[in-house]
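Risk register update: the risk of archive-format incompatibility is retired. Evidence:
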Amino acid sequence: MLESEFFKRSRPDYRKLESFGFRNNNGTFEYSEDLPGGQFRAEFSVTANGEVKGRVIDLETDDEYLPVRFEASIGSFSGHVREMYLDFLGKIRNACFVPMHFIFNQSNRVEARISREYGSDAEFPWEKYPGNGTFKCNENGKWFAALLTVDFGKLGDSGAAHPHDEDETVEVINLKADPDEIPALIKTPGVCPAYHMNKKHWISVLLDDTLTDDQVFKLIGKSYSLVSEGKPSKVKSTGAWMIPSNPKIYDVDAGFMAGGGEIEWHQHNNIRPGDEVFIYSTAPNSALLYRCEVVASDLNYHGMFKESKGYERSMRIRLIEKYPPDKYPLSFIKAHGGSVVRSARSMPKELYEAIKKTR
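Archived output:
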């Protein structure tokens, strides 16, 4: 459905739904609004388990106006109504939903646990596939997990505990495994031969709660162990960290000024006092702008940003040095083993050494 696709990588914040104007009808939150022009009314609902539904009503006939569901209607009158409805949905998503990297609840739980226990945050290297994320070992920069979207029918016999259509998009996590153990592992419900990777060394685990989180994490731990024992890759971790900041959401300069040179920041990784943290400012800067030192970590999160993203921990960092946007732009980062900073991550050794030589 149009609505489930529109909201598939976000979850509702029920407190915000009520403040927005949703009415709680026995656990289902409902909202309606006349679209511009007064000829149509948009209706939208969210259930207690996050299921979303919506429709557009023609006020003249009191029937559902179905043409909004067809993308081919763009450019026609029905296309104009569709655009108004999408604006309506976008307003609700921006005001009442929290963005999530992945579709399935288990996928997002696993992502958070990997960050908490291994200090590795998801990176999204494929612009064409924004929902596909990878996780790297801190010891050598190699992947130990890749969380991918795939049509269920391409997985073969996965033994899923939950029904899925052949063309339904599901999420799997690819993990390294002992080749001698793989034949037995892929007989486990929810585990199948690796999708898009070497099936002699990797497996795919379906993240639809066929396996419990603990069962998945046992396999993740094995994968991390196998990968971290391998030869180091060219890009090594340094102990320094990079974190992204969106200037449209948060004014870092104002934050440091108000805090006397220190600022509180949400914490994803196993960052410790004394660590260096470089703040990457996203567009229009797209550059590393601040070098900081961590003065405290593992603090209770106090919500320094406008929107909540489910953060639980924060750290306090002190500004050491600020750089002009043209000193360490994205082109410099990429030239020295780095990439766009979309989430907190360790800084590649090559990049760290290049900064030390030029600062």
